[in-house]
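Kindly inspect both lines:
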Amino acid sequence: MTDTEAKAETAPEDSSGVVGLGVTGVAGYARPASRDAAKEREVRAGVLGVGDASAHSPGVSGFGETGVIGSGSRFGVLGRFSEGVHGVAKATGAGVVGESKDGPGVIASSKSEAGLRAQSDTEAGGVFSSGKAAQIELTPLLADAPDTTAQLPGEGRLGQLAVLSDDAVTCRLYLCVEAREGAPARWAEVRLGDPVEGRTTS
């Protein structure tokens, strides 16, 4: 039997074509990847797909109007390692789309780097819009009065913004204007106009 040949039987229209029962239900390997029985026992998955790095073959490949659908009680899709999820769009589509009815569309976090990075070669790095609420929200760094500036980061990069508050009711905005190597960053307060009351409701 060649690599592209396999025995197949026509299944009734109302039944599954392949059913696998086991610690891992179905395990598929793309040659020349070798079988890893320990991995099969470890992942305990309905379907395990293993590609081969030397052949640049994917573990799982999906095509169609929707290539892959994932659903779960916690995560629909979970990606790990150097790039957890890598989305590539053709033409003008989005590489990754996140949607939610009642929760955030996308949550991004990191322990030692920026939680989210966005860049463009020819356009704005980020565009934020909202129908009724503020377009951007900066969570203030809280400090005890009277020296609110004690919470300004000693390490900063030019262009960074920081919001400080000493009462969780009012706040002040600062811009990093000087960042010399081996010296604390320097910040300047952004002077704003008189406060006005908001009128729209969500």
